[in-house]
Amino acid sequence: xxxxxxxxxxxxxxxxxxxxxxxxxxxxxxxxxxxxxxxxxxxxxxxxxxxxxxxxxxxxxxxxxxxxxxxxxxxxxxxxxxxxxxxxxxxxxxxxxxxxxxxxxxxxxxxxxxxxxxxxxxxxxxxxxxxxxxxxxxxxxxxxxxxxxxxxxxxxxxxxxxxxxxxxxxxxxxxxxxxxxxxxxxxxxxxxxxxxxxxxxxxxxxxxxxxxxxxxxxxxxxxxxxxxxxxxxxxxxxxxxxxxxxxxxxxxxxxxxxxxxxx
Amino acid sequence: xxxxxxxxxxxxxxxxxxxxxxxxxxxxxxxxxxxxxxxxxxxxxxxxxxxxxxxxxxxxxxxxxxxxxxxxxxxxxxxxxxxxxxxxxxxxxxxxxxxxxxxxxxxxxxxxxxxxxxxxxxxxxxxxxxxxxxxxxxxxxxxxxxxxxxxxxxxxxxxxxxxxxxxxxxxxxxxxxxxxxxxxxxxxxxxxxxxxxxxxxxxxxxxxxxxxxxxxxx
Lengths: 263, 218
Ligand SMILES: Nc1ncnc2c1ncn2[C@@H]1O[C@H](COP(=O)(O)OP(=O)(O)OP(=O)(O)O)[C@@H](O)[C@H]1O
Ligand SMILES: [Mg+2]
What we know:
The structure holds 2 protein chains of 2 kinds. By secondary structure, chain A is an alpha/beta fold. Chain A has 9 helices and 12 strands. Chain A has helices at about 45-50, 85-90, 110-120, 125-140, 155-165, 185-200, 210-215, 235-240, 245-260, and strands spanning about 5-15, 20-30, 35-40, 60-65, 70, 70-75, 80, 95, 170-175, 205, 220-225, 230-235. Chain A is globular. By secondary structure, chain B is mostly helical. Helix content of chain B is about 80%, strand content about 0%. Chain B contains 9 helices and no strands. The longest helix of chain B has about 35 residues, at about 10-45. Chain B starts with a helix and ends in a 6-residue tail after the last helix. Bound molecules: adenosine-5'-triphosphate (ATP) and magnesium ion. Adenosine-5'-triphosphate (ATP) binds near residues 21, 42, 44, 45 and 47 of chain A. The site of adenosine-5'-triphosphate has 10 residues of chain A, from helix 1.
């Protein structure tokens, strides 16, 4: 494994009760690479991302974050759940942005960003506030530090959530449909922030239905289907793929729905 | 009416009053702490532990405080568990209120959206930090009315402590009443005390409610 692999997923198996959602997913995330993950609803995109942050346990295969097995410790081939402090340490450098923002409503924008810093990063309150303010400035919210989430638009809330993730200076950020809960006219402001991050070299894994973003910002697209990564490659190659009938159908469905004017 | 019986016996009355307040606050606050502890354990466990705590809460909520006090004070010694009246009263109030606090806190925990807990976990907060900084402040807005209500109920419940010969305000005033025959004056004073206490608790509750809901004001 090269030193540039931030997350290595190999042969990942995840089941919910008797349904196997991920059945041998393998995917490496290299430094500064932007990977978009696409697939039909229910195909397991969120599940994959959540496993990579150990928000879900997994039954088989490996997820390594910068070389460390995530969530488990192995002793002579026997796998046991790692302690929660160990898990926290392993995913220290992983950021996660949720579809529904998941801001803490009883804290201001600045507190949402700064509080985890002084609780976990061992910096003083003052330092945390400064770093938090800087992160909010970066996403264009320098004037909203003392607003509560309820006072912000969806796009602004999602940008606060991105700032909260940025503040911990992650090595990779996982985005689970970050714009799906937003009104169409404010999707752009969030995508712009993400595009800036990509330009700065942030490693990103993005589950999205924004094909424009996938086509123009991603270095790679992975199509997940029937529990595996069915197609993976350069955006152009994947979006113009003719070989995988299920991908062709997925893309056709998608473009039919979105380009009804042209159709 | 002649209120001189009250002024004549003020040191005794003051003692009773202080004891009532101590038992009420002591019992309810320990009940709150115990209830929170049990609810925290309950929402983090499944199976036997979950049902055991459920059972605890059901039993001690269902049995009237009067009977619990009798069991503790008169029944305790037969199994080698001897308590002073005040200790039995304090323990009774603690157990009785904790059984109701468990339910309030459990509902509170369940009201905090999962996603917010996940965001906290991925932000690196540990279980305790999540409890203190995310779950408690947020559930507060939902549970403050029930909490205040329970404090109010508990003030009234203290009035029966005298049945196990605790020299609380009720016992003191009843004693004075039956020796001086000034029943009306003493009972009137007792009623006034409870009324004032309730008003204070309710007022404090309103302040707390406003504070807890600050962040919901646009
Ligand atoms: N906690 C859970 N318990 C049981 N089944 C679940 C759970 N979470 C997800 N699933 C199932 O796993 C499958 C994959 O779900 P997942 O949310 O990962 O899909 P997705 O690709 O993200 O879909 P969408 O595009 O709708 O977000 C679905 O069939 C879903 O019903
Ligand atoms: Mg999903």
